[in-house]
Structure formats: structure tokens, C-alpha cells
Specification:
With 368 residues, the protein is α/β, with parallel strands linked by helices. The chain folds into 2 domains: 253 residues, Acetylglutamate kinase-like (Carbamate kinase, 3-Layer(aba) Sandwich), CATH 3.40.1160.10; 92 residues, PUA domain (Archaeosine Trna-guanine Transglycosylase, Chain: A, domain 4), CATH 2.30.130.10. 36% of the residues lie in helices and 20% in strands. Strand 11 and strand 12 form a beta hairpin. Helix 2 packs parallel to helix 10. It is globular, with a radius of gyration of 22 Å. The two termini are 39 Å apart. The relative contact order is 0.11.
Length: 368
């Protein structure tokens, strides 16, 4: 790869490529993607594959006359996951491994590190990890919800150099190319701002849950970690060949010049806030200086039910989102102190001895 010097990449393949008819797997669009993966590995680049399509792959095994409710979709995912893994294995002459993840796995810090350890052990033994959301058993509350964002979280976890999102469109356009013949492809994005987000439409196909919006969310997560991101047309052999040659066949998202540190990135883009701590408007400067400076007297309200060690959003009274952090006290303790006008002496002393937040586990948010 003449232009791109990658040591480790994540490539995400959507449902429209795995099961283009929405019923069962097909190798129609997978051959060129598989060849790209093989070429990367031959050049010494480690690859993690994030593959959608388990529900669509399993559809054929069930009565098509029934409406696919939540339970049926989970059953389809359970059966289809086997079909999807078999479809990929047929394309490779090296071993692959299955990693089924949930938001709950990524949310818990110890499980998050376990995922990293497993992925690196597989990569170091030349085994291709194939990642998907565990749709067969995961309730909606514990789902990431789409594999675009999941791929960015995985890319961050393994400190990838690049994230390649393969879809059924040539990249990001200034307007929907399926509806407007004069739509222009955006070749490079340096900053994902409101005008870029406004270009995202809804889901473009009948299968999958991730439209262009989730792909931009994924690019935002990845580039914040210093990971170069591409949205490319996985149906195009020419596009995959261009990537092999170090060329950009789609839309390239430039990584941040000063990426977030691993712990701050995990808090900002992976960990889901379990509740909120509302603080006085004057607390912002103390948070920036040192998160441990936040006192119980700064707390105006506690929203949600969370435990010590959970991730929370720190929000000012005026609504500004200040930070995400790991709380060292439960919502019960903090609420009790907040409700007491003078503050219970024993509880206040406890909170003062153990800071509400640890400066080692806080990420200041740049946007409101």
C-alpha cells in the first residue's frame, strides 16, 4: 500500500453485502473483500472483520409468512450466525474466530480489557477475528444497536490504524445519490461538523439498521482516536483494488491531529452514561483543573440510578454537557446528600474523603 502504511485495520461489512437479497448468505460481493483481507495479511497487516448479516442470513430457515417480531429475529440471528461464519470461512484458507459482543461487554471496563486481550491473542496467532453484535440473546437496552458504531469501538479497543466501512454506496455524498443525479461524492472530510452530519440520510436498503448517520458516528469515534476512516462501496471490485493500491475510492475521514488518550476515548465514545450529575454552572473550571475538585456542595441534582464505578454524565444547570466520568459514589449516596440542605455530617465526610470523581477516570467534553 503505497500511500497507506497500516499495521492493523478493522473492516466492517454490512448486511446488504452479506445477504443482498435479504434471505441467506451470498458470496457475490464478498470475494473482492476477502481478497483485500488476504492481501492485507500477506503484507503483514493485522485485520479484524466486523460482519453484519446474521438475521438476514438466517431468514430462510424460518416460516416466511410470520411477521418477524423480536423473538423470531433473535432466533434468526442464532441460526444465521452459523451461516454467516461458514460463508466467510469458505473464502479463507486460514482459521477464523467468532467474537460476539454487546454494549454491556464494552461498557464494563474489565470485560472491555478482556475483549482486547482475546483479540490480540487471536491476531498474534494469525487468526482472523470476526466480530458481530450478539443479537441472539441481547436485550435492546444492552445493544450497541448497529455494527458501524461497534466497528469503531472495536477499532479503538485494538488501536487500529484504519477503519474501513464497506457499504453499498460509493461514499458520503452531498445529497442522496439514489434520488439526485447531480449528487457529488465528498472525497475527504477533515472535520465532522453539523454540515457533514446534515448530509446523512436514513438507511439506504431494506436490510441492516445502520444508515449513513451511523457511519458518520462511527467515523467520528474512530478519528477521535487517531484512526483513519473510509466509507467505500464493498460491491465494487475496483474500490477494493484501489484500497490495495493505497488509493481512496470512497470518502476518507482524516484522524484528529491530537487523538484522545485510550481511557478518555473509552469514556467519551464507548461507555454509555448510566445517569447524570447536575452541578452548579461554576463547576466547569474546577472540572478542567482537576476532576477531584468537584465537591458534594457543587451537586444540584442526581438523575438516574447508578452504582459506584458506573459512567455518568456531568452536566451544568444550564444544560451544558461538561464531562463523562466514572463515579466513586452511588446515586443513592449522592442523592441523599443533595436532598439534605445542610448535608449529613457523616455522609459529607465520607464523600470528602473519597472524591466524587477520580482525575484518572474523567473525559472533558468539547461540545455541549
Amino acid at each position: 500500500m503505497s500511500q497507506f502504511s497500516w499495521q492493523r485495520i478493522v473492516i466492517k461489512v454490512g448486511s446488504a453485502l452479506i445477504a443482498p437479497e435479504g434471505r441467506g448468505c451470498s458470496s457475490r460481493y464478498l470475494l473482492s473483500i476477502a481478497q483485500f483481507i488476504i492481501q492485507c495479511r500477506m503484507k503483514g497487516c493485522q485485520v479484524v472483520l466486523v460482519s453484519s448479516g446474521s438475521v438476514a442470513a438466517g431468514t430462510d430457515a424460518f416460516d416466511g409468512s410470520r411477521e418477524a417480531g423480536p423473538a423470531l429475529k433473535k432466533a434468526m440471528a442464532a441460526q444465521g450466525q452459523m451461516e454467516m461464519m461458514a460463508a466467510w470461512q469458505r473464502l479463507f484458507d486460514f482459521p477464523i474466530a467468532q467474537l460476539l459482543l454487546t454494549q454491556g461487554d464494552l461498557q464494563d471496563r474489565s470485560r472491555y480489557h478482556s475483549i482486547k486481550d482475546t483479540a490480540f491473542e487471536l491476531l498474534n496467532n494469525n487468526i482472523l477475528p470476526v466480530v458481530n453484535e450478539n443479537d441472539a440473546v441481547t436485550p435492546d437496552a444492552l445493544k450497541v444497536g448497529d455494527n458501524d458504531n461497534l466497528s469503531a469501538m472495536v477499532a479503538g479497543a485494538i488501536s487500529a490504524d484504519a477503519l474501513i466501512i464497506c457499504t453499498d454506496i460509493d461514499g458520503l455524498f452531498d445529497k442522496n445519490p439514489r434520488q439526485h443525479a447531480d449528487a457529488s461524492r465528498i472525497e475527504q472530510v477533515t472535520t465532522i461538523n453539523d454540515s457533514i452530519l446534515a448530509m446523512a440520510g436514513g438507511a439506504g436498503t431494506s436490510v441492516g439498521t445502520g444508515g449513513m448517520r451511523t457511519k458518520l458516528e462511527a467515523a467520528e469515534k474512530a478519528t477521535a482516536h487517531g484512526i483513519r476512516t473510509f466509507i467505500v462501496n464493498g460491491r465494487s471490485e475496483q474500490a477494493m483494488y484501489a484500497l490495495q493500491q493505497g488509493q481512496n475510492p470512497g470518502t476518507e475521514f482524516v484522524p484528529h491531529a491530537e487523538p484522545l488518550q485510550e481511557s478518555a476515548h473509552w469514556l467519551t465514545h464507548t461507555a454509555r452514561a448510566q445517569g447524570e450529575i447536575v452541578v452548579t454552572n461554576g463547576s466547569e473550571s474546577r472540572l478542567h483543573e482537576n476532576g477531584e475538585n468537584l465537591k458534594h456542595t457543587d451537586i444540584l441534582d442526581v438523575v438516574g440510578d447508578f452504582s459506584s464505578g458506573d459512567t455518568v454524565l456531568i452536566r451544568a444547570k444550564n444544560g451544558t454537557k461538561l464531562a463523562k466520568a466514572t463515579t466513586q459514589h452511588s446515586s443513592c449516596v449522592l442523592s441523599l446528600i443533595t436532598r439534605e440542605a445542610s448535608g449529613d455530617a457523616l455522609l459529607s465526610l465520607t464523600v470528602d474523603k473519597t472524591p466524587i470523581l477520580s482525575n484518572q477516570n474523567i473525559a472533558i467534553l468539547e461540545t455541549s
